[in-house]
Amino acid sequence: MLHTLDRLADLAGRYDVLLCDVWGVIHNGAESYPGPCAALAEWRETVGPVILISNAARPHPEVIVQMDGLGVPRETYSALVTSGDVTRVFLAERAPGPAFKIGPSRDAPLYAGTGVRFASLDEAAFIALTGPNEDEIETPEDYRAVLTEAAARRLPMICANPDKVVQRGARLIYCGGALAELYESLGGAVIMAGKPHPPIYRAALAKAAELAGGPVDPARVLAIGDGIVTDVAGANTQGLDVLFIAAGIHGAETRGADGGLDPTAAARLLAASGSHAAYAMDALA
Do residues 92 and 187 both lie within one domain? Predict the structure, then answer.
């Protein structure tokens, strides 16, 4: 049964550690959300560690700088683990490649120190994907031709950002996961480390144990996120309870007649995807 909450603090006696998504929960890519940031900061101060767990393709130091610029206070979180952090292991294992790179120039820090070099598609041993090159204007269909050729050559793809879409201001833009989905439909093989896949959860729980000073009981860990196929599905696979934030990328599908959260619509949406959450809030408070 999906329980709606008014305050995150109502769960303080039930959980010790939070694994919280970033985009759509504490910022939208254009500005931070003061209420959610304050709720997490209060949890961190009074209850326990808050580990941000993000599908950002860049290593965590780069994402921290981005969050600083968006006005996310560092008191909001104890640590940050990104898909980029764990993807770097996969890249280093395949160095020097070479790799055929798809993604914007801002994701260059992902590759620093991995030993991977880049080449044309004809010379590449694998595809390294972070997202569309021009994510403000491009769609997966812009890559159908090149991905069809890559699939015919049986090149594996390493996708550093499993998200299909993400909020940027009031818009939804395509991410690496949307291109990876197209590649799989063409017969290509895709490797991912971010949510909903296990590597990023292992890294986040290890960081939580480090901060807590000992092993963390998964039954005392709450995952928070707005993405059903990433945040919710990943936490379900790991056996973690979930707080679903409905006002994120699924906001249009979970609105009631009054413009707020419709718990029935949220529960129906979760069930249709084969996922489940213990709790729901419109926005973290």
Answer: yes
Q: Residues 51, 126: one domain?
A: no
What is the Cα 215 distance to its own chain's centre? 24
Rounded to 5 degrees, what are φ and ψ at 236? -60, -45
Say which residues have a Cβ less than 8 Å from residue 111's Cβ, sequence separation at least 6. Answer: 91, 101, 128
CATH number at 113 reads 3.40.50.1000
Considering its fold, how many domains does the chain have in total? Answer: 2
Q: Which of 159, 192, 225 is the last residue of a domain?
A: 192
Say yes or no: 142 and 186 in one domain. Answer: yes
**Region for residue 102 given its phi and psi (left: phi exceeds 0; alpha: psi -120 to 50; beta: otherwise):** beta
Cβ proximity of 285 and 7 under 8 Å:
yes
Give tens-digit pLDDT for 229-240. 999 999 999 999
- State whether 30 and 79 are in the same domain: yes
The three-state secondary structure class of 150 is helix
b/e map 141-171, b = 16+ CB within 10 Å: eebeeebeebbeeebebbbbbbbbbbbeeee
What is the per-residue pLDDT across 56-94, written as a single tens digit (0 to 9) for each? Answer: 999 999 999 999 999 999 999 999 999 999 999 999 999
Among candidates 279, 236, 248, 267, which has minimal Cα distance to 36? 248
- Three-state secondary structure call for residue 18: strand
What is the token pair recorded at 192?
């991912």
Q: Are 156 and 189 in contact (CB under 8 A)?
A: yes
